[in-house]
């Protein structure tokens, strides 16, 4: 993104911030492996307000690629519009709903402020830079510790509670909110035709694990099964659907630590381009099988209990009975049905999560050099250590 484009965006972003004069400091961009669908530019705005106070805004400008070859292969426009819809419509709806219910949810407070968005051929979101609020990423090459796992499960529970409660209390508003919602992961996979990549990655994982026939039986998915999981499973059981994140790998969460103890006290869920409508278990299984060492935390039911305790609390505060909206027994049954989604995505996403930054693919740069996205994915990360590390994380299912 060029400096003059940034300047124009900032002018829109700060129009309601009472600046009479300000200056910009462009001081960084996202690196390889930090995001695969767009670039982030970090900007600090400093100036004087109408009351002569000094004011500073720390911003993260998330922009789509203008490369037409890449845009022709990947539904960039729809991906960015999905995230724009989350910030422009979904979050304000949830905030209004919580105000009506007399509730203030930490998960909504932890989300970055969105100052402005832009649609068109160069989609953009101008967001608050959460690092200046003390949030930071977890190292994506290392499984999360229990403190971070609990904090994130609670954040997901609070987020999911809004969809469940809104449908229960005001089904017409809920239907209006999601009437044109697209499950972007399924759509993206279909458009790019990367089902063969999922099957190939899955088969490579199985080959490394053939020594343990009992465990490998749990990973035996046919091509038809993989297509069913990717395209049809997500739409089932609509009575329990939530607006799901659907992209729960490590780089899409930020955590704020308590200064003295250095323990996580708050989690922010970021990057909503692939969000959809699904069972909450799609988010839970995706997160557990890509971020949690299930050798160390083998009892998945205990993780579900942590999630459900927070979900129940949020539903109560939104004036709903958790046992009627989504009981714990129903959640367990949902896990048994839908957790294969996270297991399948784990064999795919961990290739990206566990690689070193220098080994991360640059899809935008690769495609103009004559490479097809499918070929880039198939040829990327045939790295034994990544597969073995993935297997060490995805070794138990409930």
TrEMBL record:
SUPFAM superfamilies recorded: Protein kinase-like (PK-like)
Pfam families tied to this protein: EcKL (PF02958)
Occurrences of domain CHK kinase-like (ranges): 125-317
InterPro entries per record: CHK_kinase-like, EcKL, Kinase-like_dom_sf
Protein name: CHK kinase-like domain-containing protein
Gene3D superfamilies linked: 3.90.1200.10
